[in-house]
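Record filed below.
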Amino acid sequence: MGRIPSSLRARRMLALIPYLRRGATVRISDLAATLGTTAEEVTELLGDLVMCGVPPFSPDALIDLDVQADSVTVLADPPALDRPLRLTHAELRALLAAIETAGVGADDPLARKLADAADSASLEHLARSLRAHPEVGAAEIYSLLADAIESSCKVRIAYLSARETEPRSRVVRPLELVNRNGVWYLVAFCESADGERTFRLDRIHNAEQLDERFSHPVDPSRSVVPELAGVPTAVLRVAPGYSIDNRDWPGAEVEPQQDGSLRVRLPFASPHWVAREVCSALGAIEVLEPDELRAEVREMAERLLSELPS
């Protein structure tokens, strides 16, 4: 059996925590049945949990467990669980990208849960971004690939690359889904190319999960750098006093101007992503070129204004 992916291992560790209440003694076999895994793995996960906690990571700020051969006794409630969840701006943006792909709108219960966990500064950004979210998009393919990553199943995709005129069938071992510049990518081992490749989700015309399983790499070493050659470049003006974060605008070249404004050159693969970010700035960012992107911003802004209560 291949090594369990670290993402799945982390999720199983988090799934254990609700069962670890002070004074409880729980059979490890029962926890294994609940998680759908083995008692040996649960024992390993519990061994890792006792090293987890919250700053300053003193003994009273760690998860306090007594792990025996066939049971675990909880000596103290896990720290920090009595505090409300608060998301950082980076965490909020990552979740926004995910729920955007799933077609979640501002009235969805999940969006309301995110609003409860956002700080006041991020809450305004959340509201603006959800109002500007696109239609469902590649939600079905994303869901299938996410499931295949979780279950370590191979997938047959019909993929249209930038150099081809017809989609070509490939069997891939999906490893990770990532978002760059508003575009979702699948990182996978392509059996046709006999190597790791990156596929844009909007170029996957069809996907079919296969019954054949694979083992994840033990030490994955991967990064997703969008291919910027040949993609259009937007020129933006950022108003004086309004700052932008390079983490939110990857690949941007920023030139300060004498009037305090910023001139930004930004390569982009998704016009909708740029338009959404511009509209979220509420007039502080202006698209100077290209004209097609200016039209996209104008159309989105008009739609958002029409949805405001009169």
Q: What stands out?
A: Confidence is low (pLDDT under 50) at residues 130-137. The longest helix spans residues 291-306. Residues 141 and 207 are 7 Å apart (CA to CA). The domain at 139-213 is CATH 2.30.30 (SH3 type barrels.).
